[in-house]
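Structure in, sequence out. Go:
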């Protein structure tokens, strides 16, 4: 009898790459793609003319706003390497790139580096619901910041019987707090959970503390 593979449930919106799937299979996982969220792009009017800096919070923001960013003459900041790579594909070089640990630590690192945040007026392009309280960021770092919501995420609904049919050991893979919130009800006590990023990690701890 062969060893039972652990089902690795990838909850990201987009299907994983073939390379990523092969890498997980070599580690002994059977990859299942169950997106926790679906995206609704918003028709937010974005005017960057009065801003000296634009902050992009995800590759999905780049997908929607790349034509605007290409015309922008100020500084472009990316929350992490994935967002910076998405910008580079559009021919835009990020002046500052975070380590994907979140907006607070990104700004804190900039403050440590320069002595103060090197921006007068920031256009903050992200999802409608942010993991970080933007008002708190404004107060903490004395920022002149305006939020432009680029997209909205919605929970994907799954049938309980369909989830129960996934027999055997499972490992859940999350990259956002919203994804954790969407799928938390389906995580069994014996399941493994891998969170990438501060948002997912914190939300998991918050929900587990309420159980």
């Amino acid at each position: 009898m062969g060893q039972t593979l652990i089902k690795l449930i990838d909850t990201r919106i987009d299907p994983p790459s073939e390379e990523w799937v092969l890498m997980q299979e070599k580690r002994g996982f059977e990859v299942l793609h169950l997106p926790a969220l679906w995206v609704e792009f918003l028709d937010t009017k974005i005017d960057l003319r009065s801003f000296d800096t634009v902050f992009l919070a995800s590759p999905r923001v780049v997908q929607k706003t790349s034509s605007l960013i290409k015309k922008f003459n100020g500084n472009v900041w990316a929350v992490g390497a994935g967002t910076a790579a998405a910008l580079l594909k559009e021919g835009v070089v990020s002046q500052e790139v975070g380590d994907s640990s979140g907006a607070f630590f990104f700004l804190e690192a900039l403050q440590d580096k320069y002595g103060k945040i090197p921006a007068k007026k920031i256009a903050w392009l992200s999802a409608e619901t942010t993991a970080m309280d933007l008002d708190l960021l404004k107060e903490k770092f004395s920022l002149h910041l305006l939020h432009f919501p680029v997209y909205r995420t919605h929970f994907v609904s799954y049938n309980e019987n369909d989830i129960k049919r996934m027999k055997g050991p499972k490992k859940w893979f999350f990259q956002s707090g919203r994804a954790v919130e969407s799928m938390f009800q389906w995580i069994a006590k014996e399941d493994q959970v891998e969170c990438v990023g501060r948002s997912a990690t914190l939300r998991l701890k918050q929900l587990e503390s309420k159980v």
